[in-house]
Design a protein that fits this description.
With 648 residues, the protein is mainly β. The protein has three helices and 47 strands. The relative contact order is 0.10.
Length: 648
């Protein structure tokens, strides 16, 4: 059997062509825009109807502090050959910044984009080094991405998970008169789509978002010839916001995205804000663009998806890659590891420390407990603990980190007090580390499960006029459009009332605390939690206050006010103030950023018999202002004297 052809690189005027006999990639010179990808008999997989600068590219959204936003499609100004032989070619398309570019849309960064092709490999690698030099202007970076726009006449089937794949609408279907925009431009009802089977459905790119930890491979399938275009991300270390951060994947276009930085499902907390001459450098990627075809005619085209998943496993096992020529990408010998065992200590539940099973544990830049979810400038490395609580986090870039964790079913965030220093080829053993979650006293009642999600609560069926059929009967039923509108339909006469001991949070606690539409506007809503106490709550000489723990899974321009037994208390007994910008209600997420509030409930506020906690979401100028609860718990005081018992 003949060996695969070697890799060739040719400069043809304004273009550079990479070819290994399987895949041919054409880029602009020196811009580095991918204008063509030839594979499996298709002369070009990219959208040939688009301008050459609008097919395959990197781009950013950024702004001066307090200024309006800019979109920068990154055009290189310098082309260099970094590696060139028959086994491998690595090319650089770079651009620097200088003061003459002030006042333009060019972001104040040096950006070096790399593309790498190997002999015999059905695809190519893509990565970039972003660098900020000292004394360059202050700015905020909201988004950085790599974009691939494929031929709409060829790629109609999208896949991102075993249970999240389908025939997608055409881009024309989203435009009038075929499509009708709904409450925001991204959501469109397909009134007269080209494929009549899609009539009446809703299309929204946010319905195909995914958590970082699950965003391994996604892409598109062409039916004739049977061809797959897949983006494989073998590591999350360069993504922002940690393993639970959600982001876009593939959507109508057909478009395939690699999101490296974004404020989606987080808001401004995840913008990269650079001030006062800060120095910064980060490597994004490599990600692998994998192209495949079926072995013979008549093969089930979903073979391409299964094969792409197998290739994703190969790429993950190869991480960190050994081939990037940039010294800024740390190879395995430049990395280290950390290990230990995580235990949970909650004396009100167990007399002994308990192994933290399936906990998320990771290294991120030093900060406060939970700061990793708002961290965007550095690298993060995460693992899951075993059933016995043991963990190893390997292939960590050398540097100083905080060790963070959270445990499904346990409230709050863990952070190791000491900074962890990782050295090349070194291993740090932290031994047994103990997480003592927030706790003042025994649980009187609780609502939900502390898992940073509202998925366990009541998610309604969608309005039949606004259905995405993919999510009918799907575990991710929260991804349907317009669920926020169902609240007023389900509670037409008054707001939600939850009775401890009688109500079931899976049926009686709406997944999102939203506003209520009234005529041309909206009004705030107040939910009630009713519970009874058998004995007097205010005990003379007793211990401290009761504690109401409120964990939020999401917040968007919301203010949660808490009142106990006095719905008119002014000021309220507690307020969060205005918080949140994750927009998860509108974007079909079941969580955004996590918030934990610990509210003192004074004994004199409580009474013998029935008590009511009033929860008011006080901000109401939009249907998308609101909260998602993760978990609520009322604890008795830590007093040694007997505590009142709730009557169930």
């Amino acid at each position: 059997m003949a060996s695969p052809a070697g890799v060739s690189m040719k400069v043809k005027g304004r273009h550079v062509v990479l070819d290994n006999g399987i895949v041919r990639v054409t880029l602009t010179n020196p811009g580095g825009m991918i204008t063509g990808i030839s594979f499996n008999g298709l002369n070009n997989l990219m959208e040939v109807l688009n301008d050459e600068s609008d097919r395959g590219y990197w781009s950013t959204n950024w702004s001066e502090p307090g200024g309006s936003g800019h979109f920068d499609r990154i055009q290189g100004t310098d082309f260099r050959v970094i590696v060139e032989n028959e086994e491998q070619v690595e090319l650089s398309f770079s651009r620097s910044w200088n003061p003459s570019l002030r006042g333009t849309t060019v972001i104040p960064l040096s950006i070096d984009r790399r593309i790498v092709m190997f002999r015999g490999l059905s695809g190519f690698y893509n990565y970039a080094i972003f660098e900020l030099a000292e004394d360059w202007p202050d700015f905020d970076l909201a988004e950085a991405r790599a974009v691939f726009k494929l031929r709409k006449d060829k790629f109609h089937y999208m896949a991102m998970a075993d249970n999240r794949q389908r025939i997608m609408p055409m881009p024309e279907d989203r435009l009038p008169p075929r499509g009708r925009a709904l409450a925001y431009p991204e959501a469109v009802r397909l009134d007269d789509p080209i494929d009549s089977d899609l009539r009446g459905e809703v299309d929204d790119k946010y319905q195909y978002s995914c958590e970082n930890k699950d965003n391994r491979v996604h892409g598109w399938i062409c039916a004739d010839p049977q061809t797959g275009f897949w983006q494989i991300t073998p590591s999350n270390e360069f993504r922002t916001g940690g393993p639970l951060k959600q982001d876009l994947t593939s959507h109508v276009g057909p478009i395939n995205l690699a999101m490296f930085v974004s404020t989606h499902y987080a808001g401004g907390d995840l913008e990269l804000k650079f001030r006062e001459g800060e120095l910064w450098k980060k490597v994004f990627g490599p990600v692998f663009i994998y192209l495949n075809s079926t072995p013979r005619r008549g093969t089930d085209p979903l073979y391409l998806w299964e094969d792409a998943k197998s290739q994703a496993q190969v790429e993950e096992e190869s991480w960190p890659y050994s081939f990037p020529a940039s010294e800024d990408f740390h190879k395995r010998e430049e990395r280290g590891s950390v290990g230990g065992r995580l235990l949970v200590r909650d004396s009100f539940l167990d007399d002994v420390d308990v192994a933290a099973n399936s906990a998320h544990i990771g290294l991120a830049p030093p900060g406060e407990a939970g700061s990793w979810q708002r961290e965007s400038k550095g690298y993060q490395f995460w693992a899951r603990t075993g059933i016995d609580g043991y963990f190893t986090i390997g292939d960590v870039r050398a540097g100083e980190y905080g060790l963070y964790a959270w445990v499904p079913g346990v409230l709050g965030d863990f952070k190791l007090a000491e900074t962890v220093t990782i050295t090349a080829r070194g291993h740090v053993e932290v031994g047994d580390v103990v997480f003592e979650p927030p706790r003042d006293g025994p649980t009187l009642w609780e609502i939900g499960v502390p898992d940073r999600s509202a998925a366990e609560f009541s998610v309604p069926d969608p309005n039949p006029s606004y259905v995405n059929k993919l999510y009918a009967g799907h575990p991710d039923r929260f991804r349907q459009y317009g669920l926020w509108e169902r609240y007023a339909e389900l509670y037409p006469e008054g707001d939600l009332v939850y009775r401890v001991g009688a109500s079931d949070y899976t049926k009686d606690w709406f997944y999102a605390h939203v506003t209520r539409k009234t005529g041309d506007g909206y009004k705030s809503t107040t939910w009630q939690i009713k519970f009874t106490m058998d004995r007097g709550a205010a005990q003379p000489g007793g211990g401290g206050p009761y504690k109401l723990r409120i964990a939020l899974a999401s917040a968007k321009s919301a203010e949660l006010q808490v009142r106990v037994n006095d719905p008119e208390a002014s000021p309220p007994h507690f307020t969060t103030g205005v918080i949140g910008g994750d927009n998860s209600i509108a974007r079909h997420g079941i969580h955004g950023l996590y918030w934990l509030f610990n509210v003192n409930v004074e004994r004199e506020w409580l009474v013998e018999g029935e008590n009511t906690v009033f929860l008011t979401q006080a901000r109401a100028s939009s249907p998308f202002q609101g909260l998602m609860y993760d978990y609520l718990r009322l604890e008795a005081p830590s007093s040694p004297s007997p505590s009142p018992s709730p009557s169930l």
